[in-house]
Specification:
The chain is mostly beta strands. It contains 3 helices and 40 strands. Helices cover 6% and strands 46% of the residues.
């Protein structure tokens, strides 16, 4: 019986090896970027090639495939899957193929390529482009000619220009004059990504269109049949104001700004091809509109939100042009580690809601009491909050700049979501003060306290996690023996003041 089983296992192994040798090893997913062309092949009629790309909700993508142009060769099929694995749409063709789809969610999407009838094999080229925010954009200004080329039949070249509502533009292309060469197609998109019009020709081509809105328009150039490649020249002119308009463009940093953070808006990429820019008008989307002759300006937002920033430039001929960008301003999130026993903490951020019950709600049930020391209240320095009693609490809010003692009944982590304080100044009174550290970055203690030099005599901190020595001190009068080196965000500090002062961090 054992001998017979071994023979069957041997036969099964041979069969498995044979199957693998026929169908091949399962292919890994291949990432594809917007504006990229990838060459692939279906080597077995059963094969499915898999590609992935990332997108945001409401992105619109076009996917183009150049496959064999024969019914007896690969009949390419595109299947598009959502991040959750749902099939969104599929198309197939005996020849070349273009799919357009608006995506429902943020995440990683999957493209699958196969032979639709599971009958043929062949090679193909795959291209993907995001219509609403295309990559590799080339700016073009009125009166300018740009030379370009379609190097892959699936490729789409992208150009942008700024215009105002009711401008009428003419777009001209000189392409190869042959049916078996590049058949140029022009597609014109509005600032919101809507296709306004498209035209194509075997030869040269001119498009005329009146534009509906102010903003940045997109021209896309491709081969209409996804079959040929070739060179072309592109020209654009505004008929109602033929002079060359200035080109508006700007960047901002940081790319992920937070509430109350200073943002640098830089318009040095703006230019005027036949003159110079005389004015930069910024509409920051929050009611603030500023006109300036400077290319660089700063702005901050006191509230989180998505802001549409519009830059309008004016040249020496009083011709204007505009462009917009979306700026997302968010709250900052930090966490403070808490340990069983007493903890001396502070809030480096201003919470959205300062009530103590709200701030400490993430650690409900894991703390028993919290104390604050108010140096300016000479009648009653100590304020407390006991969540177990409904009355007698005189500590009602938690804010930056103050230190707090909190008794934890178990280890936990306190998340804080908020904004950078508008002011980091802390009023200090003679004698003891319990303060917080109003910064998101640690600083050497001598540097952090430089604004009150000679106005304090000693500083203490309490480190709950250091069970060998909780207390850390800094005495500016002695050059040794200090084990308090830095002031850290989230920590509280006792400072003995020899006179009143203001701590500026």
């Amino acid at each position: 019986m054992s001998h017979q089983m071994n023979r069957w296992l041997l036969v099964l192994g041979v069969i498995i090896i044979a199957i693998v040798s026929v169908i091949g090893v399962a292919q890994a997913e291949t990432p594809i970027e917007y504006g990229e062309t990838i060459s692939g092949s279906i080597n077995y009629s059963t094969e499915i090639d898999t590609y992935t790309f990332s997108a945001d909700s409401n992105d619109t993508v076009t996917i183009r495939i150049d496959g064999p142009s024969s019914r007896s060769a690969l009949n390419t099929e595109i299947r598009l899957y959502a991040p959750n694995g749902t099939l969104l749409t599929s198309q197939w063709s005996y020849d070349n193929l273009e799919m357009l789809h608006t995506l429902p969610d943020n995440g990683e999407y999957t493209i699958m390529i196969c032979d639709s009838g599971i009958a043929y094999t062949g090679s193909y080229s795959l291209f993907i482009l995001r219509i609403n925010n295309p990559s590799n954009k080339t700016p073009i200004v009125f009166g300018e000619t740009i030379s370009g080329s379609i190097n892959y039949s699936t490729e789409i070249d992208t150009y942008t220009f700024s215009a105002d509502s009711n401008d009428t533009v003419t777009i001209r292309i000189d392409g190869p004059s042959s049916r078996s060469a590049l058949n140029t197609e022009i597609r014109l998109y509005a600032p919101n990504g809507t296709l306004l019009t498209s035209q194509w020709s075997y030869d040269n081509l001119e498009m005329l269109h009146t534009l509906p809105d102010n903003g940045e328009y997109t021209i896309m150039i491709c081969d209409s049949g996804i079959a040929y490649i070739g060179n072309y020249s592109l020209f654009i002119l505004r008929l109602n104001n033929p002079g060359s308009a200035p080109f508006a463009n700007f960047t901002y940093s940081p790319k992920n700004p937070v509430v109350n953070q200073v943002i640098i808006f830089n318009a040095t990429a703006s230019y005027d091809p036949d003159g110079f820019i005389t004015n930069y008008k910024w509409d920051f989307g929050d009611g603030n509109i500023t006109s300036t002759t400077e290319k660089i300006i700063t702005h901050s937002y006191p509230l989180k939100g998505d802001y549409v920033v519009n830059l309008t430039i004016t040249d020496n001929s009083s011709t204007t042009n505009s462009t917009t960008r979306s700026v997302q301003v968010v709250l900052i999130d930090i966490t403070i580690d808490l340990y069983t026993g007493w903890n001396l903490i502070s809030l480096p951020l201003m919470p959205e809601e300062t009530s103590i019950a709200f701030v400490l709600s993430p650690i409900n049930g894991n703390y028993s009491i919290i104390w604050e020391y108010n140096a300016s209240d000479t009648f009653d320095h100590w304020k407390k909050y006991d969540p177990g009693v409904p009355f007698g609490n005189d500590l009602t809010n938690m804010e930056p700049g103050k230190g707090y003692w909190i008794m934890m009944t178990s280890d936990d982590t306190l998340p804080i979501s908020g904004t950078v304080p508008e002011s980091t100044d802390i009023d200090l009174k003679i004698n003891w003060n319990l303060v917080g550290f109003n910064s998101l970055d640690s600083k050497a203690i001598a540097e952090a306290l430089s604004s009150i030099n000679e106005n304090y005599s000693i500083v203490w901190a309490y480190n709950t996690s250091d069970t060998a020595d909780h207390w850390k001190k800094y005495d500016p009068g002695v050059p040794f023996g200090n084990d308090l080196i830095n002031m850290e965000p989230g920590s509280g500090y006792w400072i003995m003041m020899t006179s009143d002062g203001i701590l500026k961090i």
